[in-house]
Amino acid sequence: MSSTYLWNDALVQVKPFVKNIPTTVMDVQVADQTNAAIWRAYPWRWAQATLTSASSALALVQGQQDYGIGTLTGAGYYQLLRVRISRTDVTPWIVREKDITNWLSPNLETQGSVDSIKALCYEPISSGLRLDCAASVPSGTTYQIDGEYWFKPIKILSIIHI
Fold it and tell me: Are residues 103 and 110 in contact, defined by beta-carbon separation less than 8 angstroms?
């Protein structure tokens, strides 16, 4: 059976340990810092979202290496967790998991397909994904980037004192 706790519940429990010193000035800041520490300790299921563009799935485009991603949460991107490239014009889809790296250099002179693209990375300057080479998308085929990312902790701005 699940239950719901408020940040105020945690603060009430802590009051005896700080000898009932008034902490209301710091309550929001402490709750926000605690929330951020818990959020970043592990990629909890509730802190993950699916990769998309601003409008839909991330479709690979012929000769393109960088792809912008949108965030479904509004909280922003924190870390890439899993990424794969899927060929969607065949049944069943051909799906290949890809390595995640910290950085990839621009490489538009080499082109790759679902099997020859080996890695992707998050590019913070462009707020998007970069393939290890440009995509090769022959006519009649469609590829898309699938995966999950860990989004930033939601900022706590106020606490309801009961």
Answer: no
Name 154's Cβ contacts closer than 8 Å, sequence gap at least 6: 35, 73, 75
Tokens found for residue 74: 């509004």
The answer to whether 11 and 5 are in contact (CB under 8 A) is no
What is the reported pTM? 0.74
Query: Do residues 135 and 116 lie in contact, with contact meaning Cβ atoms separated by under 8 Å?
Result: no
Q: Do residues 60 and 135 lie in contact, with contact meaning Cβ atoms separated by under 8 Å? A: yes
Per-residue model confidence (pLDDT) at position 108: 92
Phi-psi region of 140 (alpha: psi -120 to 50; beta: other; left: phi over 0): left
Closest CA to 150 of 49, 54, 30, 82: 49
Q: Which two tokens stand for residue 77?
A: 């991107």
Cα–Cα distance for residue pair 40/100, rounded to 1 Å: 19
125 vs 132 pLDDT, higher one: 132
